Amino acid sequence: MKKLAKRLVPVGLFKAVVPYWHLLNSVFYQTKAGFPARGIKVIGVTGTDGKTTTSTLITQMLRNSGKKVAMMTTISVDYGDGRGPHDNPTRLTTFGADHLVSALKKMKQEGVEYLVLEVTSHALHQRRVWGVPIHLAVFTNLGHEHLDYHGTFERYRDAKRRLFKQANKNRHGLQGGIVNADDAVSEFFAGDVQNPISYGIKSGDVQAVNIQSTSAGNRYRVKFDGREYYIECHLPGSFNVYNSLAALCVGHALGLSKDEVEKGIASLRSVEGRMTKVDEGQDFAVIVDYAHTPESFDKIFAEVKPLVENRLICVFGSAGRRDEEKRAKQGAIAGKWCDIVIVTEEDDRDINGEEIMRQIVSGAESAGKILNKDVLMVHDRTEAVKMAINVAKKGDLVILLGKGHEKSILYNGPQAVELSHLPQDDGDERRVLKRAYDEVTVAREAIKAKIKKYV
Predict the structure, then answer these.
(1) Residues 258 and 294 reside in one and the same domain
(2) How would you class 246 by CB atoms within 10 Å of its CB: exposed for 0-12, middle for 13-18, buried for 19 or more?
(3) Most buried one in 52, 358, 370, 373, CB count within 10 A?
(4) Helical H segments across 34-152, by residue range
(5) What are φ and ψ of residue 234, in 5° steps?
(6) Secondary structure (3-state) at 174
(7) Overall domain count for the chain
(8) CA distance 96 to 372
(9) Which residues, in sequence order, are CB contacts of 286 under 8 Å at separation 6+?
(10) What range defines the domain where residue 285 resides?
(11) Residue 187 and residue 341: Cα distance in Å, rounded?
(12) How far, in Å, CA of 129 to CA of 96, rounded?
């Protein structure tokens, strides 16, 4: 029925009505199932970047402390049944109401005490998590993303704030929120709950000091509420100082001991598709990461550039049916930091991939790059990765951005051009097709092929 409505209803009217459609779905499925999340302490995590890593840190910390924990993120779903995480069966970070309720019922049957739930702005605006009592809300940061859907930065911000307002209404929860104090909009989120805790490097109630960052991770100290924490986070990048600080604050708010917090954070060794190293014995480095926003580009390039002995080579694209303004910004940032920029597909959907690449290239050129010299367009992503690997020399770093953990690419269907005026529908095979793709595997095979060629 929703697919039929997408085809028949004008785009503007459809966008105005769809949140109410999702709300009705949520009310129906939650009521029918008897609100299965009741009794589970739901920790909702929202923000532009860092949601999955923060959620994974929180889950690992709680589980390491002996708690029975479930988790739902962009990458995976862990029902808390002891079988570990399953790949997320959808391309949605936060499920639609029917699938969400089904997952919640299974978690309830397993006797889960905590659920760490990654919550997107789309899900909040569409009321997909209506009926889910938020025990504690977490805000990571806010950047330039999803303005294609929300229209303005303020609307995007306010959609995220719904999570905190929902937490504040839950009288059986902590009515609290964990807020990144170093983010420009932090006061909005802190003001939405009765019991905020702020964290940061520059400011905050919980502030990291004596930070020691290496390619193996971060160490720092925190003094808060009469305790002194010594944190060792095995995830590299200063952005993971922020992510682990958020986890620390959650642990404190939930009453974990100093020892449980420290050991819990230290117990996480990696997160799939986040700063994932691909090593087959080559004399250059290869990293795969999910970064796909201008803010995350700035952060990750600033982190890795000082570690590069020779050249920094990047490969990335930008998704179709997503914020167009960010494309040139991504190109400009990559052009500023990288020696070679290879622009490729990400998920074109039913949008012209060549046009997306040209928008990115315009940004790279504004930063001084020259097309076909140090900024290249290779639409097939597998070929783009192979090119980056093949041009890499000793001491170079090849960084592959935007796909991370994802296992597929969405590309133009046979009628993509003639039907592109319709609202987005990734399930319409006339417009959008999907092929299997795993960035780590592609990079690994390209490295092996290069080594074999020169042995």
Answers:
(1) no
(2) buried
(3) 52
(4) 51-64, 97-109, 121-125, 147-150
(5) -85, 15
(6) coil
(7) 2
(8) 43
(9) 277, 278, 279, 389, 392, 397, 398, 399, 400, 443, 447
(10) 276-454
(11) 37
(12) 8
First to last CA, the chain: 58
Mean pLDDT of 113-125: 92
Residue length, the chain? 455
Which residue reads 């307002």 in tokens? 165
Residues 304 and 415 in one domain: yes
pLDDT digits (tens, 9 = 90+) for 342-398: 999 999 999 999 999 999 999 999 999 999 999 999 999 999 999 999 999 999 999
Q: If you ran DSSP here, which 8-state letter would residue 306 be given?
A: G
Domain co-membership, 223 together with 313: no
Residue 271 included in any domain: no
Residue 405 lies in a domain: yes
Q: What's the pLDDT tens digit per position in 186-217? A: 999 999 999 999 999 999 999 999 999 887 78
Domain end call among 229, 248, 266: 266
CB 82 within 8 A of CB 91: no
Both tokens of 38, joined, read 């009741």
Q: Give the tokens for residue 284.
A: 């250059």
**Per-residue CA distances from 112 to 56, 70, 107, 148 (Å):** 16, 6, 6, 37
Provide the pLDDT for residue 187.
95
- Is residue 189 a contact partner of residue 199, using CB atoms and an 8 Å limit? no
Q: Same domain, yes or no, for 161 and 215?
A: yes
End position of a domain, from candidates 229, 245, 266: 266
